[in-house]
């Protein structure tokens, strides 16, 4: 590392830590990605695939390890990884990730550049020099929209207009709505540098606690759960053609959902209940935290609606030991089998007899996904908030690297993100199913003039149902 690089790294550390020296390894530039739940895994995966082995130091926030992370490493040369732009090859960098707040936090701070919370690097331990371990940091920076850092990019589980407009329709009391200025940028009423490109596709599944008596649910029954017209285990069983016991008939559902900061939630509400933004009648009344308040004739006393701030919290909601026979909810497919302690206690439901598999989703048989977007604001390149973290050229190069990774089928599959597919524009579909290259055969063409309001189009109709 040359003298200039050392001086810049020292300046970065001093800017973060004040009088104290940051514990993160020395690095010359830092980049920040916020947003959807999948972002918590994508950012470390990008780092792992693009960095030199033996240089990778990984960190998580101890109070919510799936929601905040940092990876510090040395990027490969362009020859070793063609996705690494020449402006970044061989540089030691820090990749900050944040999934707290869901998709809305991948959109809101990029529309009108706003600082949000990240891991505070001064609270991290010194690196242990082991690529495989993840070390714990104990603190976050600042507060959202007032301090911390502005993200270089944000990931949303939906295209931005869909997310912003449908989330606002559903229930603005659940989260900070977009400001007038942010909405003007989102809907093209104000000129700005905001840019969005389509990336991978999130496959959703309806999930239950492991003791729930239904394994196949009709789409109409799920709409009833989302609208609050089906409130007991017995209601769902009868709608699914099963006969409940008296106990099941009297047992209230525990409905585990996300807040409308989540692309999963806004997309699910539109899919089940409709939205004015998508031109369908609605929105019908959607469940919120007050939906289970007060005694209602004919409804079980223990009927419960829980809105969760993250996918991890939703998993815990479904897997709670006392509620596994009555909990039901929605989550993305990779959260159903991501190797954590909740996995044995969560089951995925078939919908109208179609099993929730990645193969069925890729072929368009399990038509239950929306396309993600990568968002950023090019005006931010010239802003003062870049001082001490990267140059404009480095930031442009980072966005190029990140886009290359999240639109590449092999990179998505290699990241271990079960339930995420690449779109046909970003790879060639295999006519024989190949889980190592799970390119979707259907698309809503988000980023190419399409929208998540649309039904999926079958790209290869002759083979889509084989």
Number of domains: 2
Distance between the ends: 55 Å
Question: What is the alpha-carbon Rg in Å?
Answer: 22 Å
| SS element count, helices | 13
Q: What's the number of extended β-strand segments?
A: 17
The mean pLDDT is 86
Explain this structure to me?
By secondary structure, the chain is of the alpha/beta class. It folds into 2 domains: 3-201 and 373-421, no CATH class; 202-362, Periplasmic binding protein-like II (D-Maltodextrin-Binding Protein, domain 2), CATH 3.40.190. The chain contains 13 helices and 17 strands. Strands 1, 2, 3, 4, 5, 6, 7, 9, 10, 11, 12, 14 and 15 form a 13-stranded mixed β-sheet that branches. The chain has a two-stranded parallel sheet with strand order 8-13. The protein is globular, with a radius of gyration of 22 Å. The model is unreliable at 1-21 (pLDDT under 50).
Give a quick precis of the structure.
By secondary structure, the protein is of the alpha/beta class.
């Amino acid at each position: 590392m040359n003298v200039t690089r050392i001086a810049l790294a020292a300046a970065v550390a001093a800017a973060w830590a004040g009088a104290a020296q940051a514990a993160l390894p020395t690095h010359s530039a830092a980049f920040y990605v916020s947003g959807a739940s999948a972002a918590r895994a994508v950012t470390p995966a990008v780092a792992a695939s693009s960095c030199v082995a033996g240089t990778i130091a990984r960190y998580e926030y101890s109070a919510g390890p799936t929601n905040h992370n940092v990876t510090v490493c040395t990027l490969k040369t362009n020859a070793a990884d063609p996705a690494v732009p020449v402006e970044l090859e061989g540089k030691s960098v820090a990749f900050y990730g944040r999934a707290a707040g869901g998709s809305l936090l991948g959109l809101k701070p990029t529309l009108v550049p706003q600082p949000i919370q990240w891991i505070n690097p001064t609270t991290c331990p010194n690196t242990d020099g082991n690529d495989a371990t993840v070390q714990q940091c104990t603190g976050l920076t600042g507060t959202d929209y007032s301090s911390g850092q502005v993200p270089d990019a944000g990931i949303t589980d939906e295209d931005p207009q869909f997310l912003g407009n449908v989330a606002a329709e559903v229930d603005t009391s659940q989260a900070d709505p977009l400001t007038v200025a942010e909405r003007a940028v989102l809907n093209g009423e104000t000129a700005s540098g905001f840019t969005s490109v389509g990336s991978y596709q999130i496959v959703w599944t309806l999930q239950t606690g492991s003791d729930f008596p239904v394994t196949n649910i009709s789409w109409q029954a799920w709409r009833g759960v989302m609208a609050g017209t089906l409130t007991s285990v017995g209601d769902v069983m009868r709608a699914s053609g099963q006969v409940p016991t008296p106990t099941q008939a009297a047992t209230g559902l525990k409905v585990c959902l996300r807040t409308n900061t989540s692309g999963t939630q806004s997309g699910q509400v539109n899919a089940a209940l409709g939205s004015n933004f998508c031109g369908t009648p609605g929105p019908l009344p959607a469940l919120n935290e007050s939906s289970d308040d007060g005694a209602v004739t004919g409804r079980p006393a223990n009927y419960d609606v829980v809105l969760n701030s993250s996918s991890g919290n939703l998993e815990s909601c479904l897997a709670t030991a006392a509620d596994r026979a009555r909990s039901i909810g929605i989550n993305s497919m990779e959260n159903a089998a991501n190797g954590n302690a909740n996995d044995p206690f969560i089951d995925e439901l078939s919908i109208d007899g179609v099993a929730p598999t990645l193969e069925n989703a890729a072929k368009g048989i399990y038509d239950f996904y929306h396309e993600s977007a990568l968002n950023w604001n090019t005006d931010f390149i010239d802003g003062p908030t870049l001082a001490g973290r990267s140059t404009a050229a480095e930031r442009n190069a980072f966005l190029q690297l990140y886009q290359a990774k999240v639109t590449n089928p092999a990179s998505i599959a290699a990241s271990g993100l079960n339930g995420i597919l690449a779109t046909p524009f970003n790879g060639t579909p295999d006519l024989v199913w190949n889980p190592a290259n799970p390119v979707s055969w259907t698309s809503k063409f988000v980023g190419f003039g399409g929208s998540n309001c649309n039904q999926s189009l079958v790209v290869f109709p002759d083979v889509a149902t084989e």
